[in-house]
Sequence to fold (365 residues):
Amino acid sequence: EKGAYRHFMLKEIHEQPRALTDTWQGRLSDNNVLASSIGPEAEALLARVEAVHIVACGTSSHAGMVARYWIEAEARLPCNVELASEYRYRDPVVPRNCLFVTLSQSGETADTLAALRYAKSLGEGAGYLATLAICNKPETSLTRESDLIMMTRAGPEIGVASTKAFTTQLMCLRMLTAMIGRGPDRAERVVGDIRGVGSAVERVLELDSAISHLAEHFVDKQHALFLGRGPMYPIAMEGALKLKEISYLHAEAYAAGELKHGPLALVDEDMPVVAVAPNNEWLEKVKSNLQEVRARGGKLYVFADENSGLETEPGITVLDMPHVPDTVAPIAYTIPLQLLAYHVAVAKGTDVDQPRNLAKSVTVE
Ligand code: F6R
Fold:
């Protein structure tokens, strides 16, 4: 039931503080993430992990791409992320003691399932250490056929556009990073950050009405660009996918540093450019990328940390985000992009919960 909400998508966006909190419940101690919470054998198994392969489709693959930044920078393990439809046809090399991770809301996505079956077919020796499914629906093909399961606990997701399933996947991957990492000092801080996510997302949701006004600037446009750097690059990809999917606007994401290698040629006043700019090590670089856009007459819409120093002026509209710790910023910065896509779709009058040509669960290849 939609309750007071006009669409399931909006309801599901607003359920995220609760969903994210449910996802970590019972999986944390005071100073660490509990590997044992995903099964009695998980602790010993995860302690042996020396590499990670993540395979998924669509929005779920974007969560994997964020995790790659986390797993390599924090757990210091090599991590490869691939679209399921590509992975299974390319004869991948499997490193020693590699964990194979699938991400899926439905647990029935044909390409992801086929990739899991392929990974398992490699057998002992040439194959993977173990398979882990991070899944939202219980009792699915993916969960039945994997060695380990971590449920995302977002609850049923009805809107075709994935929202709370995505952010809870990020939460699971945040916890997985700590489980396979070897640095207890860092884990303690991460646990605090994880516990604070629900209230951080509550505060971000307060931007809802400001974003609905922003949406008016997109309704009559044909195209939009999304920019981010580091772990925010896949978040920009997710923002672009949401906009394409439900408001039928052509949107593309670029790593902000890549602009000058081609897409800058597209920038003019009819091309809105959306950027995500948390206060992290990339902020100064992102700011200079934004100047490149402004200098070409592009219209910028920036979701920036309240302490970023960025301010609204001609050509640039800045929406202040509450400060959130770096470790969970990708979760928080997804929210305004979901809201933007939602409000643009509503303003355009498209079918938000059932976009044309799409199905909630893609069970064909
Ligand atoms: C986008 C969306 C799709 C799914 C993709 C994978 O909003 O919902 O891109 O993310 O079809 O689906 P799951 O996660 O069920 O495997």
